[in-house]
Amino acid sequence: MSEPSDHKDVVREEFTKQADAYAANSILTDSEKVKRLVQATNAHPEAQVLEVATGPGHVAFEFAKVSDEVVGIDITEAPLEIARKKKQERDIENIHFQKGDGEDIPFPENTFDIVACRLALHHVEAPSNVVKEMSRVCRPEGTVAIDDIVVSEYSKRGKYQNKFERLRDPSHVRALPVSEILEIFTENNLEIIQIETGKLVQEVEEWLDNAETPPTRASEAREMVLKDAKRDLSGTHPYFKDNDLHFTQRTAVIAGKCMS
Ligand SMILES: C[S@@+](CC[C@H](N)C(=O)[O-])C[C@H]1O[C@@H](n2cnc3c(N)ncnc32)[C@H](O)[C@@H]1O
């Protein structure tokens, strides 16, 4: 059982504050991007699915279209409320949202055929605890899948990106390099069956506004991205388009088959 940590309070505070902007963010509702994780799991009509850290449920609703039953858990109430409202408005029966910690999943072992998690591993202090729990509640032969921001395999470059991401949103702990996620999967009896990389292009001012980053931290983060544009410090390739500064977050979908 994990103890509540101060960091989880930071997560709750940030995702309560960001809940409405997050739910409406077109980068995150983009159905092609949402589908990526669903497709990686080979979701089928009999599947029982758990989405860990569901937020406002973007991914869970996509699973509900192709699976039997979907449960979304999250530690923050505000996005869960948005998800429940959407469920009601859309009159969808096979989806359910409840409070729950990815580090201490409130279900017995071998409960689900598919256990998925998007854009949340980097908000957790011990990501291996989350994958361990995902693997525990997944049935043998089932699928555990992650879709997350990933950073450079070169630690100094990864650290640079994580630093400006954290300045923008203190609930960001550390996006991992792909190799570390693969290692965590293998340590938790998950045979890697798919790796797919992608990207999210962020316009810096919108990215900062969505997180309501206070001005001092926003200016430090902006400075770091600008410096990165000149010196290629993280691999996020910042660039200007129509006078607006952008950078590119790398992402990866990693799916594993539960071996026990
Ligand atoms: C960036 S949002 C991702 C939401 C959703 N998965 C999506 O892809 O749109 C991160 C979510 O992770 C949740 N979260 C962070 N740590 C968590 C934990 N230990 N257990 C459950 N949820 C957590 C936050 O409350 C927040 O809703």
Q: What report would you give on this structure?
A:
The chain has 260 residues and is an alpha/beta fold. It has one domain: Rossmann fold. The protein has 11 helices and 8 strands. Strands 1, 2, 3, 4, 5, 6, 7 and 8 form an 8-stranded mixed β-sheet that branches. Helix 7 (127-137) links the parallel strand 4 (112-118) and strand 5 (138-150). Helix 4 (31-40) packs across helix 5 and helix 8 packs antiparallel against helix 11 (215-231). The longest helix has 17 residues, at 215-231. The model has no long low-confidence stretch (mean pLDDT 96). The chain binds S-adenosylmethionine (SAM). S-adenosylmethionine binds at residues 11, 15, 28, 52-55, 58-59, 74-76, 79, 101-103, 118-120, 123-124. S-adenosylmethionine (SAM) binds at residues 11, 15, 28, 52-55, 58-59, 74-76, 79, 101-103, 118-120, 123-124.
